[in-house]
């Protein structure tokens, strides 16, 4: 069984077919998917997706490209709440996306 350790099932490209994306991945041997939030809004969406599908789990965090747009105290409080969720299994989105400028 394969595990996709870094997916973004919350992206708009998947919103009308997320169930199909997950089913096709499963059919190809992907037993579990970790969907990763890049800010507070997408982290919440990933948690909701994880609760909706038994083989999906969530990672919550702030991508470095998003860091300048957040209020630290707000982020800390939200992340503390998020990590208490049963389906949250990872903390942090540390993406090193060199194709985007900082």
CATH-defined topology: TIM Barrel
The global form is globular
Secondary structure tally, helices: 3
Query: Which strand order spans the largest sheet, edge to edge or round the barrel?
Result: 1-2-3-4
> Which segments are poorly predicted (pLDDT under 50) over 5 or more consecutive residues?
none
Helix and strand run: EHEHEHE
Radius of gyration: 14 Å
Q: What's the CATH class, please?
A: Alpha Beta
Largest sheet: 4 strands, parallel
CATH architecture type:
Alpha-Beta Barrel
Strand content: 15-25%
CATH superfamily: Metal-dependent hydrolases
Helix content: 25-40%
Number of individual domains: 1
Going by helix content, strand content and strand pairing, the class is alpha/beta
The overall pLDDT average reads 91
Tally the beta strands. 4
Question: Termini distance?
Answer: 37 Å
List keywords for this structure.
alpha/beta, 102 residues, 3 helices, 4-stranded parallel sheet, TIM Barrel, single chain, 33% helix
What do you see in this structure?
With 102 residues, the chain is α/β, with parallel strands linked by helices. It has one domain: Alpha-Beta Barrel (TIM Barrel). 33% of the residues lie in helices and 22% in strands. It has 3 helices and 4 strands; from the N terminus they run E-H-E-H-E-H-E. A 4-stranded parallel β-sheet has the order 1-2-3-4, with helices on one face. Helix 2 (40-52) packs parallel to helix 3 (72-82). The relative contact order is 0.18.
């Amino acid at each position: 069984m394969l595990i996709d350790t870094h997916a973004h099932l919350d992206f708009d490209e998947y919103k009308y077919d997320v169930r199909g994306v997950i089913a096709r991945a499963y059919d190809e041997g992907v037993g579990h998917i970790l969907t990763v939030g890049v800010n507070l809004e997408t982290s919440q969406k990933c948690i909701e997706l994880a609760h909706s599908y038994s083989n999906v789990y969530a990672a919550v965090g702030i991508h470095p490209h998003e860091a300048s747009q957040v209020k630290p105290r707000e982020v800390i409080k939200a992340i503390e709440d998020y990590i208490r969720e049963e389906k949250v299994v990872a903390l942090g989105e540390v993406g090193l996306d060199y194709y985007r400028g900082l």
